[in-house]
Amino acid sequence: MSETAALCVLGTDMSLDEDTRWLEWVTKQFGNIAGDDKEIDLDEFKTALKVKESFFAERFFELFDSDGSRSISLDELLKALNLLIHGSKTDKLRFLFQVYDVDGQKNADISLIHLSNPDSTGSGSIDPDELRTVLKSCLRESAISLPEEKLDDLTLALFESADKDNSGSITFEELKAELETFPEVMENLTISAANWLKPPEMEQKKRNTPRYLTRAYWQNNSRKLLFLCFYCLINVLLFIMAMLQHAPGGIWLMLAKGCGTCLDLNCTFIMVLMLRRCLTWLRATWVVRVLPLDQNILLHHIVGYAILIFTIGHTMAHVMNFGRLIQMDGRYHMWEYLLTTRPGIGWIYGTASITGVVLQVLICLMVVCSSTFVRRSGHFEVFYWTHLSYVWVWILLIVHCANFWKWFVVPGIVFIVEKLVGIAVSRMSGQYIIEVNLLPSKVTHLVIKRPPFFHFKPGDFIYINIPVIAKYEWHPFTISSAPEQQDIMWLHVRSMGQWTNRLYEYFQSESQTTSTKRLTASLRNRHHQTQTLVTTHPSNHRFCNIKCYVDGPYGTPTRQIFASEHAVLIGAGIGITPFASILQSIIYRMRKQNCPNCSYSWCATIKDSEMNLRKVDFIWINRDQKSFEWFVSLLTKLEMDQADEEPEGRFLEMHMYMTSALSKNDMKAIGLQMALDLLAKKEKRDSITGLRTRTQPGRPEWRKVRGRMPVSEEKKGKVHVFYCGSPALAKVIKAHCEQFGFSFYKENF
């Protein structure tokens, strides 16, 4: 952390002792920040605050600068912070008032040092123009873009609500009365004011007990943990049996054979975890309640690392054993043992050592190139092509080890058959991308013509190959349309790597689209039916007829959503795609019917033995405002379907969060959030997304989110949380689910 940034950083809920220690720390750091003149000027102050808008830095600086010297001394800083930290709610409200009273500093010598005197505000007031200036700066600070007319509406909404006497200006008492109507704001005013000034990303992490040691973790992960225990036990037993069998050969040979036998098991088991079609089929059976099928990706990672460890152990033990043999007879050198067939080690022409060295290199390369920093850094192709070397690994293992084929034969045949079926189906059913929409944040929306025999369930994913982008590459993406849409299916592809960027740029660079005369009239009608669920811009919309191949569909943990009673769907960014499919499927399953002879309407739920849902909470977390445009029309449709329902009786509840927007406990956002709340109540829709659901600023406070789900009162059944998004957020949500006793499922492929 830089010294300037550190000046304005405080943890939340600071105690008196913490405040004192922090002030001591500020004193110590002040000398380094201020430099030789022992003063902080405006530029240094702006750097320390790390604000996007200079408006707030300048206002804070003017209020902290009690003597008007255009610089802040240590004495001025400590007096200001002491007053804000230990001051009353009124003191802090007065500080907020002075920030908003832009002309107040010009009309009177009002600075933070005078806040202890209630009369210091004098006749200061906030007029509409001042309020508009503040709200405009708040919008920029929160990275929210709204038309000038909407800014005027926000200003008038807050001004008319606060100006109780219709005098044309807001006094301190009126602002205080208005703030008191927002309990969350008043609650945040009890937090030390230095917490208002800190950048949101600098919050200190609380030290909690590691979740792996909690009872809730063991209860909620019982199937996975039992299976891992069984897996470890099998490896230990095989290791011991192999060591005992080769005891006459010495300790190094015993270790090598023990690791080798475990490699036979793991190099076969990792293949079983790749049988996607078989796993998809098993998810529909009772086996899913016994085995952790939804953890196949995690198990694949664990087994991969186990193979690396056993491979290194196996190699090192053989090298040590070769050293022992050299000392005993000295017929061969070490390089001959490792790189030639002269010693005759191995069941096929003495090639065990050579194949072992090649296997060691290939396995290490596969593990390194499959690491997160490679896959998530825009180099997915490196992971993809190096991982295809698993074919050579299995071939070399058969040559290297006399017993491996016995482990390999049954799962190997199943794997080959599954691959051949996938290739045959994908090539026989060559499909076409018939429509493309380029959405904000470099998201490519593909509309693919769906063959009649292609059946999938909400949340499933496919592998797609588009020869014009890359002839031999297959990439996995979640289907974002509902199975009930018979003629088409959707994919939403976020540009994050080389292939996805090439896909976006390919359609972006096309100056002319494929002639629509080649498309049938039914395609136009189909587009007209689906456009109500997608927001598009004419310049970013293309009709086309591009060949593609699809392998799948494959099941994911989200298949269990309709078997749940109370489902909480959490999507982060483009992680909404599986839930878009699910939410659209809900529209079809819960579609309302109207009587042609009267005004009576009812919900004709499709009869489905898997449809046990009684309540759905949908949470969408986005970084910026434009990302909501991906599916805003779909969400609007969902809200319209429930418009006549009472809030407590709604089947679906939506919660939107925008992380770039400053939260309500940030002083720079208090006025804006109040204005957004007031205007949303007046217009009955959110100014950011246009939905009825109010977009909340910042990240979700999961305890409060949990408090808004009165599960016991509604009796909606046990809560199952389904998540798709960044792995870092997944860990946070999973920890909270374990604490609350919720089942957690992570979309992963």
From TrEMBL:
Coarsely, its chief localization is: membrane
Record membrane topology: Multi-pass membrane protein
Q: Which UniProt keywords apply?
A: Calcium, FAD, Flavoprotein, Membrane, Metal-binding, NADP, Oxidoreductase, Transmembrane, Transmembrane helix
**What biological-process terms (Gene Ontology) are attached?**
defense response; superoxide anion generation
Q: Where is the FAD-binding FR-type domain?
A: 426-560
Where is this protein found?
A: Membrane
A GO molecular function annotation here is: superoxide-generating NAD(P)H oxidase activity
SUPFAM superfamilies given for it?
A: EF-hand, Ferredoxin reductase-like, C-terminal NADP-linked domain, Riboflavin synthase domain-like
Q: Where is the EF-hand domain?
A: 52-87, 150-185
Q: Which Pfam families match?
A: EF-hand_5, FAD_binding_8, Ferric_reduct, NAD_binding_6
User: What GO cellular component is one of the record's annotations?
Assistant: NADPH oxidase complex
Claim: Nucleotidyltransferase is one of the keywords in the record: no
Answer yes or no on keyword Oxidoreductase.
yes
The regions listed as transmembrane in this protein's record are 225-244, 250-275, 302-326, 346-370, 382-399, 405-425, 567-588
Checking InterPro entries in the record gives:
EF-hand-dom_pair, EF_Hand_1_Ca_BS, EF_hand_dom, FAD-bd_8, FAD-bd_FR_type, Fe3_Rdtase_TM_dom, Fe_red_NAD-bd_6, FNR_nucleotide-bd
PANTHER family given in the database record: NADPH OXIDASE, NADPH OXIDASE 5
* Name of the molecule in the record: NADPH oxidase, EF-hand calcium binding domain 5
Q: Which gene encodes it?
A: NOX5
